[in-house]
Write a structure and sequence with these properties.
Elements (H helix, E strand, L loop, with lengths): L2 E3 L4 H8 L4 E3 H4 L7 E6 L5 H12 L6 E7 L10 H7 E3 H4 L4 E6 L15 H14 E7 L1 H11 L4 E15 L14 E11 L2 H4 L5 E7 L3 E7 L4 E4 L9 H9 L27 H17 L11
Parallel strand pairs: 1-2, 1-4, 3-4, 3-6, 4-5, 6-7, 7-12
Antiparallel strand pairs: 8-9, 8-10, 10-11, 11-12
Helix pairs in contact: 1-3
Length: 306
């Protein structure tokens, strides 16, 4: 898919090296197409890495997309240059009058805090509420999935005795015929990296929520609401092959609640490197979301989104 990205975004060069077609603003203006407008609220610390991971997956359809990166006014990231944020990101206040065909909200390294204790909770809450009336379909990832379920439906999160860390099999529910699972096998794998969880018994109390993927080992995988206008994904299908390895090497000897990522290294030996088994389904998941829940559902006149 031709991704319509801001000129000079670092991800452009990285993706072009992977033979992924991207389009800068100058070339995009020459095409008479209404691109899908996708907003990404990036709450992850290493923003350039997350940008590249998400854009890599969004590139897998023939649809043109205009990507807008959103940032919080109430939080200043410590691990991304200020110049990068100023050049490529916009505050929510700058975007609140706009409408978007799709939106992605990433995870954040605050999951062991109570939601109301997070310094930017009030601003994130306003964005979650705004998305209900200004976005056709919103994908919440990891902490954002827990936060979205809590904000919209009152679903609590629970602490885990140790980090849920590794690659875990997910089974599609009885809803396998949903368009989000077109092309999927009965079982797919999802990277997990979290210290908290949401539980089936809490979700089942809400008739408007449907668990559509679940794991015997890692619990709830994907929850759908409002006929696909909201997806809550507890893991990280967007993760690059070496992400969990980098996390593990970072935390070794520094935390006592982190073990070697399960089902990740070839023969469970970190010296053998990662054994990648989730990337094909990751591409399918994002492709199906963009096609069936964004492109097929959004009005041509974007101002009609409500």
């Amino acid at each position: 898919m031709p991704l319509r990205l801001p000129d000079n975004l670092p991800a452009i060069q990285l993706l072009e090296q992977e033979n992924i077609f991207v389009m800068d603003e100058r070339r995009a203006h020459g095409q008479d197409i209404r691109p899908l407008k996708i907003a990404i609220l990036n709450l992850m610390p290493l923003k350039i890495t997350t940008e590249t991971d998400l854009l890599r997956l969004l590139s897998n359809t023939p649809l043109q997309m205009e990507i807008t990166f959103m940032k919080l006014k109430s939080h200043t990231p410590k691990n991304t240059p200020i110049e990068h944020m100023a050049m490529f990101y916009k505050d929510f206040d700058e975007l609140r009058e706009q409408r978007f065909d799709g939106m992605i909200v990433t995870g954040a390294p605050v999951e062991q805090m109570e939601f109301e204790e997070v310094s930017y909770w009030q601003e994130v809450s306003r964005i979650f509420e705004w998305a209900r009336t200004h976005v056709t379909s919103t994908m919440y990832i990891c902490w954002a999935a827990q936060a979205g379920l809590y904000f919209h439906y009152g679903v609590p999160k629970h602490d885990l005795p140790k980090k849920m860390f590794g690659i875990f099999k997910q089974r599609c529910s009885a809803e396998k015929k949903l368009p989000i699972f077109r092309g999927f096998d009965d079982v797919f794998r999802m990277p997990q990296s979290r210290h908290t969880e949401v539980r089936r018994e809490d979700i089942d109390k809400h008739a408007e929520l449907t668990i559509i993927a679940e794991s015997e080992d890692s619990g709830v995988g994907i929850v759908m609401a409002r006929e696909g206008r909201e997806f809550f994904i507890t893991g990280h299908m967007e993760y690059n092959p070496d992400t969990l390895d980098n996390e593990y090497r970072r935390d070794m000897g520094k935390r006592d609640d982190v073990e070697m990522p399960r089902n990740y290294y070839l023969d469970d030996n970190m010296e053998n490197g990662p054994f990648v088994r989730w990337r094909a389904h990751a591409n399918l998941l994002f492709q199906n979301w963009v096609n069936y829940y964004v492109y097929q559902a959004t009005p041509y006149d974007i101002n009609q989104i409500k």
